[in-house]
Amino acid sequence: MVSENFKNHWPTVKFKCLSQDMEYYLVKWKGWPDSTNTWEPLQNLKCPLLLQQFSNDKHNYLSQVKKGKAITPKNNNKTLKPAIAEYIVKKAKQRIALQRWQDELNRRKNHKGMIFVENTVDLEGPPSDFYYINEYKPAPGISLVNEATFGCSCTDCFFQKCCPAEAGVLLAYNKNQQIKIPPGTPIYECNSRCQCGPDCPNRIVQKGTQYSLCIFRTSNGRGWGVKTLVKIKRMSFVMEYVGEVITSEEAERRGQFYDNKGITYLFDLDYESDEFTVDAARYGNVSHFVNHSCDPNLQVFNVFIDNLDTRLPRIALFSTRTINAGEELTFDYQMKGSADISSDSIDHSPAKKRVRTVCKCGAVTCRGYLN
């Protein structure tokens, strides 16, 4: 018989022991202090997911011990050893922390695609100094003009002389919302002053990420990564790269600090000048967690919508090929939005004499370093 306590409060299973061939679990009740923990027989626990997590955590710990060739004493008293119990408790706390972080990310994001978080590799929890934003955050002293001065009056932007034509470039998308222009060509989307509606074929990047993505812990020492949970067609918009907009001089200072820590979050806005850089170290969106690859499946494009200042393009990432569900998303950290996919796109600015960060992408064409 399940008590009211079981019905109203999901438990956290912490320990297990056997007594007279009956399994008992020490249960931490949600919303109640540790002093109210109780030992409960398996038959009382109507929480199959928690029990499965308990079993998986125990198995994962023992597998890690086996890989490390550590020798553990036999479990003669049929209770969990303290080290195993401690690991299971830490995993439970981590799972709760990651779920809370996932909920926070989805509260803050303003796009259709959902964000999920997963760590089946280690005990790392949410980053402690990262703040989710949906658009550029200007550093003190930098002004971002986010209001267009003119817009189109098209009734059908796909066939008429629209914003791209006014800027002297081709419309970037085909009827399937796929990008059709070569890398290095800027994208000019319709803006807030345009008379076309939200279904305009020239409004893609501004709608934000449409795909459900998962921030996950990599198993080869690359920290967090991002994978797609759905299939993404080739040449499709995936996400924007956003962060804090800083001057190139400030980027130089921060870059040396980041290189010493082995991290890379600086993206030069060098479409026509090199005055500004986007720093996604503390402020960013899902793109903050996208790893580098020397053979990436995402390509960088410069985008102009409401802000037409060529010194401050928005950075959009498009798929270079079909990306299957469960596949990790990557882009080349040395790729410029103003160049094609070639050795010419390697960005050696703003400094050449920095600590070099070893690349772990594993691609056949790996250059060996991130910078």
From TrEMBL:
The Post-SET domain, residue ranges: 355-371
Positions of Zn(2+) 4 binding: 294, 359, 361, 366
Residues given in the record as Zn(2+) 2 binding sites: 152, 163, 190, 194
CDD domains given in the database record: SET_SUV39H2
Keyword Nucleus: yes
Keyword Cell cycle: yes
Protein residues bound to Zn(2+) 1: 152, 154, 157, 162
Catalysed transformations (reactions): L-lysyl(9)-[histone H3] + 3 S-adenosyl-L-methionine = N(6),N(6),N(6)-trimethyl-L-lysyl(9)-[histone H3] + 3 S-adenosyl-L-homocysteine + 3 H(+)
GO cellular component, one term: chromatin
Domain Chromo: from-to ranges: 1-66
Compartment annotation: Chromosome, Centromere; Nucleus
Residues given in the record as Zn(2+) 3 binding sites: 157, 190, 196, 200
Binding, S-adenosyl-L-methionine: 222-224, 291-292, 333, 360
Self-association state and partner proteins as the record states: Interacts with SMAD5. The large PER complex involved in the histone methylation is composed of at least PER2, CBX3, TRIM28, SUV39H1 and/or SUV39H2; CBX3 mediates the formation of the complex.
Protein's UniProt name: Histone-lysine N-methyltransferase
Organism from which the protein derives: Cercocebus atys
Phylogenetic classification of the source organism: Eukaryota, Metazoa, Chordata, Craniata, Vertebrata
